[in-house]
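Quick log. Single chain, no ligands specified.
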Amino acid sequence: MNPDNLLVATKFSPPRISPRHIPREHLLTRLRDTKYCAATLITGGAGFGKTILLAQWRQELMKTGIDVTWLSLSHDDRQFSSFCTYLLAAFQRLGMRADDVVPDAAGSDQSMEALVAVATSAVEEIDRELYLLIDDYQHVEAPAAHRLMQRLLDHCPANLHIVIASRTVPPLSLGRLRMQGQVSEIDFAELPFDLEETRGFFDQNLSTLKLTADEVRLIHDLTNGWPASLQPVATMLRIRPAKRANLRSLLWKSADLQSYLAEDVVAYLPPALTSFMEKLSVFRRFNAGLAEAVTENAEAADLIKRAGDENLLIYRVETDDPSPWYRFHPLFGEFLAQRLAEQGNDAVQTVHRRASRWFAAHDLLVEAVRHASLGGDLDFAADAMEQAATRSTWSMSYIGPLLHMLDRLPQETLFSHPRLFFLGCLTHAFTGRADKAERWLEQIRRTDAARIPALSSKFAIIDSSVAVQRDDMRRVIEVLEPLCSAPMENASLRYVCLAGLVVAYLAVGRHDDARRLFDANPIPPEDRDNDMAMVFESLRAQTCLVEGDVREAERLGASILARAEAVYGRASLPANLCAATLASACYELDRIDDAREALANRAGMMQSSWPDVMMQSSLCRARLDFLQDVPETALSFLEAQASHFHILGLDRAVAHMLAEQVDILLTIGEQRRAAELAARLEGLRKVHEHATGAFAHIRAIAALVRAQLAQADSNHRVALEALAEVRAFGEQYGRAPTVVRANLLAAVAHDGLQQDAEATRCLTEAVTLAAKLGLVRTLLDTKAQTARLLARLQKDDSLPAPVARYLADSLARMTPGTARPDVAPVGAAASAGARMAPDAERGPLTPRELEILSLIAEAMSNKRIALTLNITFGTVKWNVKNILAKLGVSSRYDAIALARQRGLLK
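-> predicted structure:
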């Protein structure tokens, strides 16, 4: 009988690669560099795509004519005899004769030496490169099997390359081979999808259903790029697209994912390890000390190490603490937490209470408060929070746990902790609950606590925070100007005051005072990572944005956002505030994809933040929606935001939302609906007719809308009168983009009145100022009205060279048609206006540009394209910019859609 007949043939067959699988290009690039390596290790947890990566690598090797054999191991191969039999069968498929080796079932050293000698000699006689790909090596348990692999690697012929994929790091000694550059390793940290791969996965797997940037970012953040968790989501969305409205629940409650975790991740674990991990699942981070305290297990450190060695979806958290900290993958942590909950509420609360005391003992008061609150120990939580209030290290990171606790604390407990009461007022003010903060402040002022100087001196901070939420910037200035020069016991509160004052200065047009405040209060190195210091620092970028220096706003905003996300996380307060500024700057620079990414999955800051942040991010979001979808999407969002701001009493924000709707409606020819909204805006203007400070914006906003409606009716004289008011506001309040837009529309009005000289003057002033500032979308978004006039101005030889170049570039971006359809997706073009052909002067796409465009369509980032084509990152960016310009679009997504429509892509 042929021995092969006793073997399971499928162990030598890799899985079929579906067209819907995402090519792991950056990992394949790493594997291409292994041609001189004897061993390659791919290690990572269940469901992270090790097998698919290995199969993709196999296909690539075979296309080049290299001999490859595949071996999949299973739990049945844990013993030496089975492992050895299949390993030798794999070697035979590489060309070694079947009678060359007789396996020794006992695995004695003597027979193993003979086996390795014969196998390596046989391989050396084969005059070509050979690859042995071994999948699921974690099933191997026999020490003799590991010794056999060790000796094969130690004596590996130069033409043999062994690639091992395993959930655990194999117990092999590879130090010598590493020193010789003979080992390549891809570990758990490198296997997760990045954001582009997550987006590409859903593009491939959802056919006609297109997820928004918010939805993709939400899924990516929840899954941490875990490929196995994406498939059940894609399947459910294909079957029931309406489920997209609750993606978070879809992930947490996926029966398929729960079964996968139960059957493929924890099924073979010792009960003691599973129970240990369940108790740790309630923590956002943990270390050995905390684990020992809450589990009462002296072997906690060893169990954490084992979980890490087996890649049980556990991650190392980067901290300065010499004791390493870890966290579970969010979905795995939730799975474990559900299992813990099945043991009853007492078991869960016991873990929280033990944790709260451990955290408090180690001065980690944010976590102490959080777990005391979750454990129902509210008195301990209140004591811990009040203790935090006396510390100079208090920061805005306390807001989350404090807000959760405040809703559960009885009133008498709050009154017995006056400092806690103060922090509660501040928390409500910072989270959009100005009414509650104001009521609480009045209550505490009527108690004996108001006579405590250390507490009463801080009431002004709450007053100013409430005033910010009321958009009463003159009151903010009145309260904070004297306070900012006074010493404070807490650095965070000092930066709260400085940041509030800058926001107020910008709202009332006192930009020089804002800059003086920055100059007078440099951030010392020890405060560099303070969260409110980051907020204060980010307002430099906001200052540049308001003034129109968008390039500097983008540079500063990107830098601070990266730091904020690295230190505090993507969902933190400083990260959200920086993101609002960065998104608006990227939009103005016509970097549409970057703007979308900055705002993705940050809806919270549009509902609960400072008024300017909510307004700015809402306007940017609506404009991005208009570019991406049919106009009704943007209009519905703006109307919802207008209602929200009306409830909050933010008339300035309501005015912005109404004006943006008017702009969109006029763009798509809905003049009647635009007039109805303009009437609502006019009512707001009358309420604030004589207002000063921030509320003066409302008059300018209403004037701009009046001008737009007048131009739509060809009533150019009325338009000019209104635009004069807009221009005066822009000049008085230091808002250069407003001045540019007013001059652009004024040029259109003068042209309508056949006042050519005045039209040219206004247009020249607008373009000159826009060129100085680097504005892009301010011109593009008015191109329906101004493109013809700008083309005429281009013929004027009197323009300075930099301005002429800027004008030429702006015109190259413009195509005939409506204001924004050049970047709308193909499906939305019918509603927003027809898509036009690219600028003929720029010519067709070059072969290199077509090659890069095809890789963009495969969801590759610029960095990966550079690696794939062996060109520099800067070269890729330059080519991508040319592709977008030639196609007349502003984003990679739109380039792909248009290229497919024209047959440039298959």
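The mean pLDDT is 85.
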